[in-house]
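User: Can you help me understand a structure? I only have the sequence.
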Amino acid sequence: MAIPDRLSDPVVVEGLFQVAAATALAAVVIGISSLRDLGLERELGGSFARGFVQVIAMGALIGVLFTIPLAYSGLLLAAMVCYAAWESRKRGDGVPHAFRISVLALGLGSAVVIVTMVAAGAIERTVRNLVPVGGMIIANAMKTNSLTLDRFQGEIESNREEIEAVLALGVPPERAISEFVTESVRASLIPVVDAMRTLGLVYIPGMMAGMILGGANPIYAAEYQFVIMGMIFAAGGLTSMTASLLLGRAAFTDAAQLRRFEATDPTLLGTVRAALDR
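Assistant: Let's start by predicting it. Here is the structure, written out as tokens:
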């Protein structure tokens, strides 16, 4: 079905009313943020609008996407990792080498899981299956990476004097911040751990429901949903642990001095320069 035909489909018009309802709910959240002077209106509104435009664009191009050769899906997933790292590093604004660390952590965490599960047959060797599932794994790993960066930066800045005092006593840099590295990993994994704990009781994922509605065996649907959650858990864990290891090293100079986490220039040119420097 061509893109113009898809746009004229009656179900698309029905979907617009549903989008309007979801937008109204988001507007309530933004309004409350404004009333309470939280200063989150721009970020919340921008991310909501951006997400809508991006997912609609992907929906419009999805038919074309599925016609590309399987070999190119690897390049597409690599591009997703780079873009996810670009967005994620904003949570660690000022953290040394945040973009480079995010690329390495996301690339390793996602690649290990995707390659392993393709070999196990859990992800079919088709673009139709590999790209959506791979994208889901990368997106969830990005969330974990963002939390790691944010918490690591907060822990180091809040405890800078304590860390520098310990360094002055001759304690190795790795040991001086090990407690804060551990805390950043633990905090970043809270969402995925909680999701696993409540899986099937509180959290009933949409993929499982969709498979059941599509006529799949409910037991198999449950098994496959657990596989998906396992992939998300593994990718998030590998990403967070890799990022924390690299962050722990990047936090110090060659002379074992704790670096200053300076915010980047907010202009586009400043952002590009900072990302290249990192």
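Now, to help you interpret it: The mean pLDDT is 82. Residues 71-277 form one domain. Let me know which part you'd like to focus on.
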